[in-house]
Structure formats: C-alpha cells, structure tokens
Amino acid sequence: MIALLAATAISCLQRSAVDGDTIRCNGQNMRLIGDGVPFRSGIDTPETGSRAKCERERLLGKEAKKRLTELLRDPGLRIEDTGQVDDTDQRRPLVRVRLGNGQLAENILLQEGHSIIWRPKVKRPWCG
What we know:
With 128 residues, the protein is an alpha+beta fold.
C-alpha cells in the first residue's frame, strides 16, 4: 500500500500554466504530480515549443497548456505542496492542483486525454 503524502497549501497570488504539467506560482515553476508518488508515478503532457519532438506533440502540448490555463482560473483552486521536488536541475516543487469542487486538475487532464500517467522510462506516445 502506498501512503499519500501530506500536503501544505501554497498561497499563489500569481499563477499561470508553463505547459500542460507545469505551473508558475509567484514566479516559481512547479511540477504537477496529481495522485502520483514522487519518482514513481505522476502525469505527463506533451512538450511545447522547441522541446517538442514533432509537430503533433507541439500541437497537443499547446492544447494541454490551454486546458490547464482554464482550470487555473477556478476561484476555489488550491495549490498543494507535497514537500518533494523533482530531480531536474530546476528542483521544481511537486504539487497538486485542487479545484474548488475537490477534483484534481491533473485528473481532469487525464480524463480529457491531455495527459498520460507518467512512470519512469515509459515511452511517450505523442509522435507515434
């Protein structure tokens, strides 16, 4: 059985979507993890801009970012810090984005097909 990590609410006066699975909160990038467990599972969305490996990924990434931007407008939204950081050079905090109705934005992205469940070394399907 995997225990969920305790979360601390973050006061986020300025928030925006960097891409479909990263937000910027008060100038700091934060990685969305959803119901995942750090370094074992989470969510992944297509890359945008020059980080995309093909045009299809770039277009899908743009749609994922657009949808996350819409979700970030929820007036009851809370950013929940898991207390963990990712293993990139940026050391982004791993967070959950909980809407006012209790749903995780990450789960909505999964349900709507904007993201996939991330696991280490799983190939991403964006470019076929």
